[in-house]
Structure formats: C-alpha cells, structure tokens
Design a protein that fits this description.
Blueprint: H1 11-21, E1 29-38, E2 43-52, E3 55-60, E4 71-74, E5 79-82, E6 84-89, H2 97-105, E7 109-114, H3 117-122, H4 125-135, E8 141-146, H5 157-160, H6 163-171, E9 175-181, H7 184-188, H8 192-203, E10 207-210, H9 217-225, E11 230-231, H10 237-245, E12 249-253, H11 261-270, E13 279-282, H12 296-305, H13 310-316, H14 319-325, E14 342-345, E15 355-358, E16 361-365, E17 368-369, E18 403-407, E19 413-417, E20 433-439, E21 445-452, E22 460-463, E23 471-475, H15 478-491, E24 494-499, E25 502-508, H16 520-536, H17 544-550, E26 559-561, E27 565-568, E28 573-577, E29 579-580
Parallel strand pairs: 1-4, 1-5, 6-7, 7-8, 8-9, 9-10, 11-12, 12-13, 18-21
Antiparallel strand pairs: 1-2, 2-3, 5-14, 14-15, 15-16, 16-17, 18-19, 20-21, 20-23, 21-29, 22-23, 22-24, 24-25, 26-27, 27-28
C-alpha cells in the first residue's frame, strides 16, 4: 500500500518526475515569470516553476523542452507563496474535516494538522483509519494528532484510550504528534502510562503538543523535560518569552474565544522579541463565523500590520510549521520536490490568495471557487445520524441537587448553592438560573442540576453537540426541554430551541450528532442565527458553542458535569455520581 499521506511516491512516479526534467515528459502546469518567496535566501526571486501531478519538479530559470500537455500560466504581476499550514485544527466544531479543508483552501490554507478527539471517542479504530485514508483523496493535505486522554471523565476511558489504541494511532503514517496534553497535571502527578506514550511518540520522531495555560516557568521546564515541544496557550508577551526561553516552539493564537494575536505581538515587541523562527500561527478550532475574514491568511495580515517583517509573517504560516514537524521536505516552501501547494497573491501585503493550487490542482482561480472537493459518503465511515431509540419522560426531570453550576465566563464554571424552588414545572424569568441536564447518548444515565448565568428566558434547548456527544438539556421549562429533545431525536442530532410548544430554532448535525454535513458558508448562517437567538434569550458570554462544548471539559476549572457525574476538577473527585435510568 502506498502511504500517500507522506507522499512516498512509487518508484515509477519518481522516474516520471525525473523524465520531465529530461524532456521526455511534459510538465502538467508551467508557472512562468513567477515572483515567489524563496526561504533559503529570504528573498523574493523570479523563476519558472514546473509542476507534474501533485509535485513541484523544478524551480529555476530553465523552461521545459516539452509543453504539449502543459498548461502555461504567465505569473507576471503576481506574487507566489507556499500554501499555508494550520498546525492545530479542531475539525469538528460543527463543521467537519472535509468541509473545513474545502473552505480553508479558498483562503490559501492547504494543509491542516487535525485533532483526532471525535474519531477516538465516537469511532472504532478501523472506521477511523478508513476515514483518514479517504481524507487523502482531496486537494488539501490533512495530518492528525493522537490524544492521550478524553479531556473529561468518561466511562470506560481505559478501553477508549487503551495502550493498543493509542499505539496504533501513534504509529499511523498520517499522525504527526501526540497531544494536545490537556491531561498534563496527571502527567506531573506520576501518570507513567502517559509518560510512556510520550516516550513512544518521541521514539517515532514525532512531536508532543502542550496545552499549558498559566503554567509557571518551572512547570514549563518540567514539561519540556518530559517531552513537550510546542505550546499554543500563551496569553501575554511574557508567556511567549518564557516558552521560548525553555526551548519551546510557540504557537501564537488567534481564535474566536482567545483572539490574542494582536496583543501578543504588541507585548512581544515591547519586551524586545524580534526573532520569529520559533513561532507559528494557529486559529485553535474557531467556530465557523470567526472564519469569515479568513484563516491563517488573516493571521499573516495581522502580523504584517503589527510590524512583523513580511517574510517572517509568511514563514510563520509555512516553513516554520513544516520544520517544526519535520515535513519541510514536503511542505512549507516553493522548491523542487515539494508538494505543489501554491498561493497566488495580488501583492505581498495581501495574504488572501486570488488563486490557489493544492496538490497540483487548481482549487481557486481568479477569485472563483472551482469546487474541486468531491462529496464524502459519510455513512460508509460510520458518520450516520444519531439513532435515539429511547424516551425521556417527566420522571427524568427530577432536580434535587443541593448546589448547581455557575458560569463565570463562556467556559469557566464554579459551584454555587441553589436557593430557588426546583420542584416546579417552570422557573421564573426574573433570574438567570435554568434547569440543566446531561443525558447519556444511549439513554443509560442522567445528571440533573441547575445552571446559573446561561440565560434568563430560554424555555428549552437540547444539544447533542458536546465534548462527548452526550445530550445537554437547558431551560426554564421542563416541558419545553422535553419538546426540544423530541425534535432532536427526529432530526438525528443537532441543537434545538423550543418555545411556546414549538421549535423556534434548530441546527441539524446529522454526522454523529456533533457535525453538520453542510458546507462552511451555509453553516455560518445557521450558526449566526442560533447565537443571535441565544443572545435574545440572555446569553451574554463570548461564544455559546464553546460553552456547550466545554461543560464536560475537565482541563478547565472548577466544576464540570461529566459521564461520571458532577466533577471537582481541582480535587479530582466526583461529587455526585450520575443517576442510572
């Protein structure tokens, strides 16, 4: 089997590539008079670029002898840069890995290094790996990470993140790194299995991605000793400085919940950081509406506006990432032998491309989307709609917990004492407390409490979009919550809002109940309508989608609602177990 993800071309392909230079074969695309970024010289150079199949076979002054099967493009007046790389994608944020890659390539991001969390939690290994293989057939390039923990307290974690499963993922050719290390406190506390997996990752010459928000210099040093290579959680210029000092590659973030990049650059410049070779960019799994302005291209634009030298700004999106992951023989530059991922710019100060080639194929031409991405037959890979073959009843709507969960911001939650009467069918709308439930996607257990700070006037909402794909119910009215849930069943997963006995807003997530099958542009409009509806009902934090995703996430303080029950993150204890149904 050819492992095309690593582009190990067969011998005959390599002979063909050489035959193009010998004049026996014609290139497929010839880019003449191309002013391009040459990172070896750190200069803009003019050359002719020959492309055969998905590979650049020559860059230089020569022109090919044969051009009868060749598309010749005069690049005079254009500026060419390598395709951009997103090193830290979460490709399941309502969109899916295919729709994200298709959308991203229109903005010049043609390589994505993806989180495998949903695949690890929701799919068996065989189906997951067949999906990874399918992803190789599209113009964008997708690599993956291997998670070491669920980022929450799940039931049967030892079978999901078994040694065998983790090792198979690490050995997979499309996997470039282990992490992100959301479970690093366990690692520091002596979790030897996690340390073993890190050792195995390093033995395979793969990277370890950290997740170290607020970590002290000493903690950063310890984690570097244990194997971490990169971290994307810098929130200040000093954070960047500390990570660089301890030998990390620093991923600068600009995401929908942490749009830090402009502040980071200002503070870095204030403290005299003016070298960028150890820095890369990430949008860290933003939701779709944040991507209207672009993806990595927008980060390059911000960097240039903030005074980063133009070539450094492009390098942070291309060659720096490729070097970090040891894939610079394939990606990150326009040079002989590299994969033909090329962005055509009107000007070096405008990083959003007017045309894009990905794996030697035009995906955007003169501003027009060429729709080069063929649809995926999702059900073949186990991404079918949720089949909820069980009922929720009024008996399930029992709320007797002594304390509830209070939202400090979009993602931080603390415990608080419940003083309102929760035995009623409906709660008053003069306060921001709602009934709150997490229900097993298979109907085996439930967890009922009260949520403060989410909404003042939301009657009922049901969401299968969550960290684990279990079902979240929130609302003032038990009846409306049940109504939203019943509609969720009908559509096979999604997010549904019910009011006055009828559904007023819904988003269908027919891929396992956590992802939409729609393209990103259509999804954006649905997402905006949903967020607007929740804001009308009194949601006042940054992003309700992150809130839904992170209710169960035990890498965040202080109290979480998980498959095990109500969980105290700091003391690592289950305060109240889930109730079996």
């Amino acid at each position: 089997m050819v492992l095309e993800q690593r582009y190990r071309w067969k011998n005959r392909h390599l002979r063909e590539h050489v035959s193009v230079l010998d004049g026996k074969l014609s290139p497929m695309i010839l880019l003449k008079n191309a002013r391009y970024l040459n990172q070896a010289f750190r200069k803009w150079i003019t050359a002719n670029i020959w492309i055969y199949g998905d590979r650049i076979v020559y860059v230089g002054e020569k022109l090919p002898e044969k051009i009868e099967q060749c598309e010749v493009v005069d690049c005079t007046g254009l500026t060419l840069v390598p395709g951009y790389i997103e090193p830290h994608a979460h490709p399941f944020q309502l969109y899916n890995p295919h729709s994200l890659a298709s959308y991203a390539s229109q903005f010049g991001t043609t390589t994505l290094i993806n989180d495998n969390m949903v695949l690890a939690l929701q799919q068996d290994k065989k189906k997951a790996f067949s999906f990874l293989k399918e992803m190789r057939n599209m113009p964008a390039t997708t690599y993956w990470w291997c998670r070491f923990d669920a980022q929450t307290e799940i039931q049967h974690e030892e079978s999901v993140f078994s040694h065998g499963n983790v090792k198979s993922w690490l050995e997979h050719d499309a996997v470039l790194q282990g992490g992100e290390l959301t479970g690093w406190p366990k690692l520091l506390d002596g979790d030897d299995m996690m340390l073993h997996w890190i050792q195995e990752t390093k033995r395979m010459r793969k990277k370890i991605e950290g997740h170290f928000p607020g970590a002290s210099e000493k903690t950063l040093a310890k984690l570097m000793l244990l194997g971490a290579d990169c971290d994307h959680e810098s929130m200040t210029g000093k954070d960047v400085y500390n990570r660089l000092l301890q030998g990390y590659t620093v991923s600068l973030r600009y995401s929908s919940i942490r749009p830090d990049l402009p502040i980071l650059l200002d503070e870095m410049h204030d403290i005299g950081i003016d070298q960028y070779d150890r820095m890369i960019f990430t949008t860290d799994g933003s939701f779709s509406s944040f991507y209207e302005q672009g993806i990595i291209d927008h980060m390059i634009r911000i960097a240039i506006d903030k005074g980063v030298p133009v070539i450094d700004a492009y390098n942070m999106a291309t060659i720096n990432v490729a070097r970090h992951y040891g894939i610079d023989y394939l990606h990150g530059s326009i040079a002989t032998g590299r994969v033909a991922n090329i962005n055509f710019l009107s000007d070096e100060s405008e990083p959003t491309p007017i045309s894009v080639i990905a794996k030697g194929e035009w995906v955007k031409r003169d501003g027009e989307n060429l729709h080069a991405y063929k649809p995926v037959q999702w059900e073949e890979f186990g991404f079918e709609p949720m089949n909820i073959d069980w009922e929720l009843t009024a008996d399930d709507m029992q709320f007797s917990m002594p304390f509830g969960i209070k939202m400090e911001n979009a993602v931080i939650t603390k415990p608080y004492s419940i003083t309102i009467d929760v035995s009623a069918e409906e709660l008053e709308k003069d306060h921001d407390e709602c009934f709150f439930m997490l229900v097993d996607r298979n109907g085996h257990w439930r967890m009922n409490t009260v949520l403060k700070g989410f909404s003042k006037s939301l009657d009922g909402m049901a969401s299968s979009f969550s960290n684990t794909g279990d079902i979240i119910l929130i609302g003032k009215s038990k009846h409306e919550m049940l109504n939203a849930f019943n509609r969720l069943k009908e559509i096979g997963g999604g997010i549904v809002i019910s009011e006055g006995g009828k559904v007023v807003q819904e988003m269908e997530l027919r891929l396992k109940g956590v992802m939409s099958h729609k393209n990103v542009e259509d999804l954006m409009e649905e997402e905006k309508q949903l967020v607007h509806c929740l804001r009308d009902k009194g949601y006042r934090h940054e992003d309700p989608m992150y809130t839904l995703l992170f209710f169960s996430s035990t890498h965040l303080p202080y109290i979480r609602i998980t498959q095990q029950g109500m969980y105290d993150v700091m003391n690592k204890t289950v305060l109240f177990p889930t109730i079996m149904r």
